[in-house]
Design brief:
The complex is a heterodimer of chains A (105) and B (117).
Chain A lengths: L3 E4 L2 E5 L4 E7 L6 E6 L5 E6 L3 E5 L2 E6 L4 E6 L8 E7 L4 E2 L3 E6 L1
Chain B lengths: L3 E4 L2 E4 L5 E7 L6 E7 L5 E8 L5 E2 L8 E7 L2 E6 L8 E7 L10 E2 L3 E5 L1
Parallel strand pairs in B: 2-11
Antiparallel strand pairs in B: 1-3, 3-8, 4-5, 4-9, 5-6, 7-8, 9-10, 9-11
Classes of the chains: A mainly beta (105), B mainly beta (117).
């Protein structure tokens, strides 16, 4: 099956800093999503982005399907951005291991 | 739109009993739903694909007799953990896609935290 790798596994930022999270996948896909898992376990859908670039406020994402990677950008980070960020790919939604983000005040 | 409701949110059961978890698509039809399990500080692991009107497809290593999946309608899939044991304690979460119905991507339920004592 398709392999999904996320980096970095952990990221600690000072409030206001910018960050880039990466998702590499082993095969071409027609579905890719970024999620934020809150402390209660709820998966919040951030982007549906099998290709191209999207922006939503301080967050943006880019997927280069031909090179099999996607990037999630967080600008001007806030403490409420803390949590685990997952990418999931493919028709059966395989998840990467996630990036645990901690934003310190 | 594209809401998936999962119930219950948390459940505690005694070892040896069975627990049923429901996953409903509230405003769309879902011919396929997915069931995941997540252990603390780990990622979501796909357990099985639930197909309306047919048998579920289980991932390698998942016991189909222990995790019974029924997808009897286009809006409801259930996961029953049979003869639960403490090692089955985990966070279970379902997802569905309203593709072709005006939405894209997958929507997830809020999850069920199962504790077996």
């Amino acid at each position: 099956g398709i392999q999904v790798e996320q980096s970095p596994p952990d990221l600690i930022l000072q409030e206001g800093a910018n960050s880039t999270l990466r998702c590499n996948f082993s095969d071409s896909v027609n579905n890719l999503q970024w999620f934020h898992q809150n402390p209660w376990g709820q998966l919040i859908n951030l982007f549906y982005i099998p290709s191209g670039t999207k922006q939503n406020g301080r967050l943006s994402a880019t997927t280069v399907a031909t090179e099999r990677y996607s990037l999630l950008y967080i600008s001007s980070s806030q403490t409420t951005d803390s949590g685990v960020y997952f990418c999931a790919v493919g028709n059966d939604m395989r998840f990467g291991a996630g990036t645990r983000l901690t934003v310190k005040p | 739109g594209a809401v998936v409701s999962q119930h219950p949110s948390w459940v505690i059961c005694k070892s040896g009993t069975s627990v049923k978890i429901e996953c409903r698509s509230l405003d769309f039809q879902a011919t396929t739903m997915f069931w995941y399990r997540q252990f603390p500080k780990q990622s979501l692991m796909l357990m099985a694909t639930s197909n309306e009107g047919s048998k579920a497809t289980y991932e390698q290593g998942v016991e189909k007799d222990k995790f019974l999946i029924n997808h009897a309608s286009l809006t409801l899939s259930t996961l029953t953990v049979t003869s639960a044991h403490p090692e089955d304690s985990s966070f279970y979460i379902c997802s569905a896609s309203p593709k072709g119905q005006g939405y894209y991507g997958y929507t997830f339920g809020s999850g069920t935290r199962l504790t077996v004592v």
